Structure formats: C-alpha cells, structure tokens
Amino acid sequence: MSGVSPPPNRRLATHRLVPLLLLTMFVWHAAAQQVVLPATPDSVKFAVIGDNGNGDRPEYEIATLMAQAHERFPFDRVIMLGDNIYGGQSASDMVKKFSQPYKVLLDEGVKFYASLGNHDDPGHVRYPPWNMNGERYYTYTVKNVRFFALDSNKVDQKELAWLEDALKAAQEDWKICYFHHPLYSDGGTHGSSVDVRVLFEPLFVKYGVNVVFSGHDHIYERLTPQKGIYYFVEGASGELRKGDTRPSAMTAKAFDEDRSFMLVEIGGHTLFFQTTSRAGVVVDSGTIERQGRR
Amino acid sequence: MSLRMRMSGLILDYLVALPLGCAAALLWANTFEESYYRFAHAAAFAVNDVGIVFFFALITKEVAEATIPGGALHPWRRAAMPVAAAMGSVAVSVALYLSFAHYVGEYMLEDGWVVACAVDIPGSYVVARMIFGRHPAVPFLLLLAISADAIGLACIAVLQPIGNPRPPIGLGFMVIAIYGAFALRRAGAKNFWLYLAGPGLLSWWALYEAGVHPALALVPIVPFFPHGRRDQGLFEEPAPQAHDTLTLFERWWRLPVEGVLFFFGLVNAGVPLHGLEAGSWGLPIAALGRPLGIVAAVGVARMLGLHLPARVGWRDILVVGAIASIGLVFALFFATAVMPPGTMLLELKMGALITLTGAVVAAIAARLLRVGRFAH
C-alpha cells in the first residue's frame, strides 16, 4: 500500500511527539498537585489571595487548585488582600464570588481573614466568614507569627496610632502586614502607592515588620527587600492584567501571564513561599530568613 | 475677554497663588513623590486646619459686607430662590456621585458623597463675572454657591464629625466665643486682633471639640467686626479711605492669605497623574448634573411661587449651573475634611481638580446659549 502513509520524516516526528505529549501530560498533572513547601507539622501555614472576587471561571479554577493544594499542604487560613468582591455586593454575589468558589476550603474549616480593597463594600467588615469582627484593621496571632490586617483605603490617625501600639506590643518572631494598596509595585496600571507608603513604612521599619502582602495591581510580584522588608504583590487571584508588569531594579520576580495564588509556611526563623499559576505551575518559590530585630 | 472689575486682593491671590501652588504640587507629586507626600502629610494640619481659617474669614468678610445695604446680597430674602436651586444642585450631584461610585464598583468612595456638594465660591465668582459682567445672575450664583457649601458643611458636621466629638462642650465654647465677639462689638472694640485672639481662638477650639472642621472658626466671628455703612462691591478692592475693622482685617491678612492659598494648593493638589481608578471621575460627573438639578429646582420653586431675579432667564440659569460645577478649593477642602489619607482621597482630589474644566463648559454653554457677554 502506498500513498496513504505519511512521509518518513513525518512518521519520525509523530514517533517522537507521542512520548513527549505523554511526558508533558504527566508533568502537567504532577505540577497541578505540586507543593514545594516542607509542610512540617508544627509550622504556620497559610494561603494568600488578592483581587479575587469577580465570580468568573478563573477565580473558581484558582479556588480548585487551592483546595487541591490543601490536601498536601493543610493550611488553616487564607489571608485576603482586598477587592474580595467586585461589582454587586448582595447576598447572592457573596455566594457566587466567595462562598461558592471556596466552598471546599470553607467546608474543611479553613478560615479567611480579609482586608478590604477599594472595590469592597465597607460594610463587609461585619461579614462573618471574613473574620474582621467589624473592624477595618485588626491583628491576630498564630504561634510565633503576628498578623496585621490593615486598611490602606483610608489611613487615619486613629489607625496609625493603633498600628504603632500593636506593633510595639507584638512579641512574636514574625510580624506580617497585609492590606490592599502596595507600598511597592511594578504594576503598570497602578504601581506603588507612595502616599500610603510614607504613612505605613516608617512604622514597619521602626518596629521590625518582616513581610508585607498587598494586591491592587493585577499581577504577581516579589520585590527585592525595601529597607529590609520583603514585599509581595498578589493581585491576580481572580482578576488579571496580562503583561502589566514594568520590571525595574526592585523586581525580584514577576508573573503576569495568568492568575495565581500563594502558599506560605513559617517554621522557626524561616519563611517558605510558593506561587502557583492557574495552570498549576509553581511560578515562584523560595525562602526568607527572619531579619534580625531592628 | 477682559475682566472689567477692580478685583480684591483675595481674587488676585486666588488667580495667582492658588494655581501656582497646585502646579507646584502636581509637578512635585509626580517627580519626587515620596518627599512630596511626606511634606503634604506633615503640613496638612497647619494649612488645612489653621492657615485656611483666614481664607474662609476673608470669604465671610465679603459675604457679610454684601448683605449690608448696597451689597450684592442685600436683602437676604433674595436668597430663597438660590437656596432652592442649591438644594436641587446638591440633590442631583450627590445622587449622580453615589450612582457613579456604585457603577464603577468603588464602594469605598461612597463616604465622600458630601464633596459633591462643594461649589468653589471665588472661582465660580470670577468665571461668572467674566461671562455675565454685572448681571443679576452673579449674586444669584453666589447665593447658590454659599448655600450649597453651607449644606455640605452642615452634612459634614452632623454626619461625618471629625475625631472624637464632644458637641455639648463645643457648643458651650461657641456660645462663649460668639458672646465675646458680640461684647467686643458693643464695647466699641475696633482692633481686629482682639476679635481673633479671644473669640476667634475660642471658636476654633469649640469647633474642634464639636467635631466640626475648625477651618470655619472665624465664620461666626467675622460678622461681628465693625464694618462700613455701605458695601464697596463683592470681591472688589476697598476704598482707600476706608478704615473700618473689616477693611483693616482684609488689608492685613491679604499677604498671609496669599501664602496660605499657595500652600493650600501645594499641600492638597498633589495627585499622581497616572494610576488612579475610575472613581476620580465621580466628582466631575456629579458636577455635570448640577445644571439639571438647578433648573429642576428652580422650576419647582417657581411653581411654588418664588421668582427669579429680574433679567435672569432659563438660559442664564443653565449657564449658572455650569459655572457652579467648579468645585476646586471647596471640593479639595471638603475632601480633606471627610476622607483620611489614602487612595480614595487622591481620587477625590483628582476629581476636584478636574471640575475646573467646568469653567470651559460654562464658557461654551454661554456662547451656545448667547448668554451674558455672548448675548450680542
């Protein structure tokens, strides 16, 4: 028989492509479950999402990946960096944009601790699943880590005084702050919120804040330490501005091709982090050694 | 187009010092941003809570003088229609502002609704004089602007008090301050420093205690200053021979207020020209609704029996509405009064600056409608 067989070179190509395809599928599958963190039993484990609540398919896909990751990396809390709900803020919106996508995690007892963004309804400080207890800013402790959820939309003297007192009183090894507007960002749409930086940063430096998480720019970015503090931007857990990063000298790693979320683990004096894309690929990971007390 | 008026120092300062301050702020905030915001935050109290007291005092002086015989705002009963127009302006502006904030999903901006009430008194006056000359539409606009700002300030005082208000204590101090000013006036005191050092200071503290912005401290005190028998004209240079307390007060404070206006622009107008969200358009869009609100309110008021001033028609009212869309200084002031530092405040400030384009809209409207200087 002749005439129907592919030419020899084409046959060769097919011969090579099949195992390559299988290998890719295997790697893809493995990556979807991939957790590169140590997941030691006594460590503090949490996930980070920002600018997530649009109720669109990508938000659900990220939430599914988080649920899968939770099986291997049993984080007990998720910190939310603001713009937790876009558009309508009704009860049905809260279901569609929050409780439905994260249902698996909520059912497994994972707690969400929110900060609010400019698109959030200020009244949602009283939304029980976000554990804000009616406050725009609040603090809580998990083992040797003290978290500070702040309001960067409206930074009044009362908040600054509260923050200074809370930071001063904190005795934990790690001080982690999170809020919506990034003090440093290479996002092309918004960039650094310098007006907020001059208010928060002096306190962060003075009282030895270790790591800061923010959203607002719809990208993922890890920045080089600024005045000794590590900054992350995770504003792409639902929304995305593809190609929006404008790399600069302060960019350590950026990812703006797809949605993402972060997993963080703190054990002793080491913080481990990984950022996973919607494709299940770890796009950034590393460790941070706790800075000395300033 | 010439501005055929003997402009007072206040208006000249407004036209020179304030834009200079705003321009410097925009340049600084978009080049050396960190140093700018550090400066702006540090200087905000001195400028917005103390220095600007004297700008509002000079505005009050003009308004107080304008209500005496011969003044543009005399008698007060003329105010009924402009007050009605102001209510329409405020209602539509606030509704549009809130609708827009809701539409773009920036719910955090909703707390700034009161800024949509603000009408820039000196700015709108200058534009009105340029368009209308000495037409009765000008005092109509002024009364409208004063009323709209008064509504806004009342809303701030009642709904969004500052700090930890203690209204009874504030009210007590205010009664003493006003009585003090009244007693000085009755005793024939002519030195304005006496009014400032006693009742003025007490009034500042009273407002602070009451949770009302202390920038208005001299507003209830200035009307007690001894003044001339007849008004020289709103925002016009006082006669050289005038030596009444109000005139001396204006002459002494002209230069310091020039500095205050420059610093007010410098401290408050610095906004990033890139990176703000759609919420920045909330105030300009609210301002666009003002002519509609004013026309509607005037229509209702006429049905209820109120009258428009002579020679003021519907086309004039529309142009007055467009002029009243300028929020600038008053919108910046309202914004800093109701919104703490942060991105929301920057968006409001940007919106306040954009409302300056209301002057261009008003000029185009006047030309299209053949109003004022464009009538012939």
Task: Trace the largest sheet of chain A across and list its strands.
Answer: 4-5-6-7-9-8-10
Helix/sheet category of chain B: mainly alpha
Largest sheet of chain B: none
Number of strands of chain A: 13
- Integer-rounded radius of gyration of chain A: 21 Å
> What is the count of helical runs of chain B?
14
**Count of runs of 4 or more consecutive helical residues of chain A:** 6
Rg from Cα of chain B: 20 Å
| Strand segment tally of chain B | 0
Which percent range fits the helix content of chain B?
55-70%
The separation of the N and C termini of chain B measures 14 Å
Specify the overall morphology of chain B. globular
Strand content of the residues of chain B, in percent? under 5%
Distance between the termini of chain A: 81 Å
The biggest sheet of chain A, with number of strands, parallel, antiparallel or mixed sense and barrel status, is:
7 strands, mixed
Q: Could you give the order of the helices and strands of chain B?
A: HHHHHHHHHHHHHH
Overall body shape of chain A = globular
Report the portion of residues of chain A in β strands. 15-25%
Question: By helix and strand content of chain A, what is the structural category?
Answer: alpha/beta
Q: Largest interface, and how many residues on either side?
A: A-B, 29 and 25 residues
Write the layout of secondary structure elements.
The complex is a heterodimer of chains A (294) and B (376).
Chain A: H1 8-32, E1 44-49, H2 57-72, E2 77-80, H3 91-99, H4 103-107, E3 111-114, E4 138-142, E5 145-149, H5 157-169, E6 174-178, H6 194-206, E7 211-214, E8 220-223, E9 230-234, E10 251-255, E11 260-267, E12 270-277, E13 282-289
Parallel strand pairs in A: 1-2, 2-3, 5-6, 6-7, 7-9
Antiparallel strand pairs in A: 1-11, 4-5, 8-9, 8-10, 11-12, 12-13
Helix pairs in contact in A: 5-6
Chain B: H1 9-29, H2 33-66, H3 80-103, H4 121-132, H5 137-159, H6 167-186, H7 192-210, H8 245-268, H9 282-288, H10 290-303, H11 314-323, H12 328-338, H13 343-354, H14 358-369
